[in-house]
Predict the structure of DUF3192 domain-containing protein.
Amino acid sequence: MRKTQVAGLAAALVAALTLQGCIVVADGDGSYSYSSDDWQKQERENRKVIASLDEGATINYIENRLGTPNFSELWTVDGDKYRVLYYRTHRVDSDGETSKDECTPLVFVNGSLVGTGELAVSRIPAKN
């Protein structure tokens, strides 16, 4: 083997070995996995925004500030449309999944914010 071939093989081997372990994890919807630091920052930012919300804020305003909710529920009782958006604000289990008990609910009646947290949810009339 000539020196140039050996040098080329050596360079290819070094490149292959140094690229091992470089993995970007993408979910099927094109989103990326985040480190725990990223989740903690997002949770902290969500808590900060939620704490500053005023009663009467619209769903559009909140989704513009917080993005897509982790969970969303919608139903109508006696002609009033209730929507609850859930945003992740704290960790319960380090399982890589977000569950409702790791979120703060935001309760809307007819498109306007009426309250946040479990107390607001408990005051919603029962679903028909």
Notes: The chain is about 35% helix and 20% strand. The helical segments are 3-19, 36-51, 59-66, 117-122.
